[in-house]
Specification:
Radius of gyration: 26 Å
Strand order of the largest sheet: 1-2-3-4-5-6-7-8
Number of domains: 3
Structural class: mainly beta
Order of helices and strands: HEEEEEEEEHEEEEEEEEHEEEEEEEE
CATH topology of the largest domain: Lipocalin
Distance between the termini: 23 Å
Length: about 325
Amino acid sequence: MKYAKYLFLLTVSLAGSQLIVEQANAQETPKFGIELTKTIQLNPSQLKPLEGFFQNPKNKDMYVQITVAPSGNGIMCKRLWNNNQMNFLPETELNFVSAIAPEERPLRLLFKKDSTGSVSQLSLGNNDLWTRVADYKPIVKLEMKHTPEQLKPLEGTYSLQNNQQQRFIQFTVKQNQLILKQHWDGTEQALLPETELSFFIKDQTLFSLVFSKDANGVINQALVNKRDNWTKIVPVHLTNEQLKVFEGKYQFKDDPDNLLQLTAKGQQLVVKQLWDGKEISLTPQTDTYFYNNEESYSLLFNKDADGNFTQMRLLGIDIFTKVK
């Protein structure tokens, strides 16, 4: 199969690396190999004491709500960060199993009581204990009044060094919104300002993005979901002579029939697919990273032990090696 499907198409999806949809998942991996036991019938008065709000111990912004199912038998577990619901049927007064098709793998929900006999915790998928809270307050984020000029200083390309693999995102202002674009697949997401530096995504309450400034008051970083620190890069301008070190023929590691020819033209690097002659021009973002914004097409070069550019990563995932 030729490599054409990757050029000019935004079809690449990296499992586990989607920045703007990377939310914590409350449905923990269930314990497999457990046979379903018989469900029992409980009346609403037996189920009522289970109702309430329960908080995740690892992420204090994550809550589930337990209510008696409309049918009167079983309970509903609602994830309050995305409003997804799942129905559970009782196996005992405190143990419940997801009401799903027999061929699916069940998820168990187990309630625990405190010393007074009141339900105080639940275990979802036999993992972390979620704690019951009496003073649940929904997360409310409001968009502040702003202008495009206020958002402009945030524009630019930002880099993340993660698991020894560098990634890039880009912020641009469109119609008084800040648009986040993932360079590796072209996915875009509109962000709304809650304050001058903090942004959120509508209907995704767990997502957060906070910009920070350097000592001179210039935007230099963006913290995503309270853990990933993206650093703003200063675009470089490479001469034609500097670009020539990348020239040559490159072979796809997983399919040697797929070859690319790289040529320096002016202040851009041109990629040519040798199987069909298609070309695309890339602009340097750093001294090793090149990007075409219209096509969301990226190349990131790596040096070998001798300091030569002999390998590159295409579209964030696929390795090409320089042909000697």
